[in-house]
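Progress against Task 2.4 (sequence-to-structure conversion) is shown through the following example record, which the project officer requested during the mid-term review.
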Amino acid sequence: MSAAIKLKDVSKSFAHQPVLEKISLSIQNGEIVALLGASGGGKSTLLNLISGLLDADDGDILIQGTAAKHFQQWQQVAYLFQEDRLLPWRSVQQNVHFGLENSALSKSEKQQRVSDALKLVGLADYAQHWPHQLSGGMRSRVALARSLVVQPQIMLMDEPFSRLDPQTRSTLHNELLRIQALTAMTIIIVTHDVEEAVVLADRVVVLKPHPGRIHSQTALSLPRPRIATLPDVNEQIRLLRLEV
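Structure tokens generated for the chain above:
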């Protein structure tokens, strides 16, 4: 696999307070990487730097070999936030379509993209529903479809499942893995949940705070599906908890 994202000695401060210090990391195409660690480790800041929402103070960020600030972010990098951020005055279909409003696609191409994204997340029958008619899990699926509709090469996810109940979270974990297997997206997911990191990731990167720096990296070769009660999975969760 080739590198989708490369960071070299990336640092970021706010009001002269260091938040990230000399982060160097290479993420391969099609890899799922979990950023794990306590609050203050700079996990979300790192996502914002990769997405282009923030500029690094020092260091280099390359996306598919191109400097992040010159990369065509809108069409190849999608960002899924902790909140679903659905527009209440738009239907499910219209919320997903919002992800394409700045694209040069034709009207029919946009409609097909929206239809395909809703099918992918299992919401084809809910296209005309309103956000207030949906459960929390369904709203998260709509937000995921809105990110998928641009057919991104890279998906950045900032604790997107943290507000869901355990059963719904588990269901969406499985859905995400199924979609990633179909699309071969590169995924970076920020989480505080060690179990979530082990269930989803090919590699777990632990950040330590004040300032944020890479403490450890763990490659996971456990077969999927990874169920926390299985001995090998449970042992990996135990070992990673010692790192956080």
